[in-house]
Amino acid sequence: MLGQILFVGAGAMGGAILRGALQAGLLEPKQVQVLVRTEASAHALRTELGVNASVEMPNLSKLNTIIWAVKPQVWPQVVPQFQAIPAGTTCLSVAAGINLATLETALPQASWYRAMPNTPVAVGAGLTAVSVGTKGTDEATEAFTKLFGAIGEAVVVSEADLERLTAVSGSGPGYAFVIMDALADAGVRLGLTRSLAIKAAAYTLFGAGKMALETGTHPAILRDQVTSPGGTTIAGIAAMEKVGLRTAMQEGVVACYERSFELSKK
Ligand SMILES: NC(=O)c1ccc[n+]([C@@H]2O[C@H](COP(=O)([O-])OP(=O)(O)OC[C@H]3O[C@@H](n4cnc5c(N)ncnc54)[C@H](OP(=O)(O)O)[C@@H]3O)[C@@H](O)[C@H]2O)c1
């Protein structure tokens, strides 16, 4: 359904989406064009992925789909060059803070989607929120769900929920790395080597996430299953909660959410 597809930008995020889609066989190199800023990036993408990557504007009339994966501050500079895209071109932007109304105003002839992936898409374990613009179709929504499903899990949500998810799962890997580092520090404090402590912390977060997803069990019940009365784990949790673990998570996520609105107004 995606047809001839152009990636505008293929760095950390665009590149991860493109690699995932090619590996999953959802896209073939011959249907993909990539527009980047530097010839070095274009050359690297041509060599690695066999796609038609260039710093030159493509023939817009031949495109069915455009994935916009440039930085939000770059997007306003790039978009004027696309005024001539044909009506009905399907566009999806991953740029944080640029809402559907802005996208639809900039290129009103296109059918717009917005997505918020997170960095684990690079290892096939991302969560991507997808929001559908006013001209979205069931067919394109399904195609994008499959595309992001190839690099993790995709959820179709309202734009308000996409903003909320930005603060939970979009920035979430950042919080998880801080928690992982802190857990590893605690292991080092007890006398573990740094490398063993990091492995233990990373597997703990990975395994707990996998258990919650695969069992579908509420995290409070899973926690209950590992806290025996008067035992060690409940003593650890009680000490963490005394210094505000739960409040810290909530305050952090709300601060992220509010900051995202401040930035999008700029
Ligand atoms: N990384 C994340 O965790 C994450 C999560 C969710 C959403 N996003 C969104 O993803 C988007 C891209 O972020 P990123 O981290 O992938 O950035 P990035 O790694 O810096 O990649 C940016 C890409 O845009 C290209 N580019 C820059 N200026 C251009 C221009 N004038 N014309 C055409 N291409 C141009 C770059 O080409 P060169 O390589 O040649 O410079 C590069 O391929 C952002 O809007 C961000 O909000 C990122």
UniProtKB/TrEMBL annotation:
GO terms for cellular component: cytoplasm. NADP(+) binds at residues 69-72. Its EC number is 1.5.1.2. It is an enzyme of class 1 (oxidoreductase). Residues 159-263 form the Pyrroline-5-carboxylate reductase dimerisation domain. It is found in: Cytoplasm. It catalyses: L-proline + NAD(+) = (S)-1-pyrroline-5-carboxylate + NADH + 2 H(+); L-proline + NADP(+) = (S)-1-pyrroline-5-carboxylate + NADPH + 2 H(+). GO terms for biological process: L-proline biosynthetic process. One of its GO terms (molecular function) is pyrroline-5-carboxylate reductase activity. Pathway: Amino-acid biosynthesis; L-proline biosynthesis; L-proline from L-glutamate 5-semialdehyde: step 1/1. The keyword Nucleotidyltransferase does not apply. Residues 5-97 form the Pyrroline-5-carboxylate reductase catalytic N-terminal domain. The keyword Isomerase does not apply. InterPro entries: 6-PGluconate_DH-like_C_sf (IPR008927), NAD(P)-bd_dom_sf (IPR036291), P5C_Rdtase_cat_N (IPR028939), P5CR-like_CS (IPR053790), P5CR_dimer (IPR029036), Pyrroline-COOH_reductase (IPR000304). Keywords: Amino-acid biosynthesis, Cytoplasm, NADP, Oxidoreductase, Proline biosynthesis. Belongs to the pyrroline-5-carboxylate reductase family. Catalyzes the reduction of 1-pyrroline-5-carboxylate (PCA) to L-proline. This is Pyrroline-5-carboxylate reductase. It comes from Veillonella criceti.
